[in-house]
Input
Amino acid sequence: MPHRINISRLAAMLLAGTTVAAVPDSASAGPAEARFEITPWAGYRVGGDFSETDSDAEIELMESNTWGLTFNGMVRPDAEWEFLYAEQSTSLDVSGLVTPLGDLDVAVQYVQIGGTYLFDGSRARPFIALTIGASRFDPKPGAFSSKTFFAGSFGGGWKIGLGDNLALRLEGRVYSTFVDDDSSLFCESSGGNGSCLIVLDGNLFTQWEARAGLTVRF
Output
């Protein structure tokens, strides 16, 4: 006796099979590719001196620890855009000037945007980075005014993978600040009269930095 075909049951089986085929195998499907990276880092910065016009003194910025944050976004597998914030708390030796101050505490900040190029690599990928933006010199005590200049940076290093979403970022970077002739630095106003601690001779203010950070990818 021929079997009677249950149409509704057959349709349900076909629908179930189609649904199972459409669901990706979790064991074979790889993780979604991360498009952004955020890297808090710490480092050490050296270099930086100004030439003072009136006294011909060389005013040196002391080397010290630094910290900052780098944010990257993928453009293509070997290129990223980059936003950088870096800060150094240090002091400026102004003993060569006619002032009762020996050292002047100052925060040096860089706010930069640019790009990163990644070379071929598996777990460790070399990279170079180029940015432009601003540098800001903020003296303490607050009686002196801060000063902002045009600046750029160039760096390079390695991104070493620690898993799908973590990496160690090791980097060296050089910062260059462009200083105009007769620029005034650390000015104050008292009783309607204004004066500036330093009148700069135009030059290139350069600092070097080594740093390490932990990158989180998402």
In short: The first strand starts at residue 36 and ends at 46.
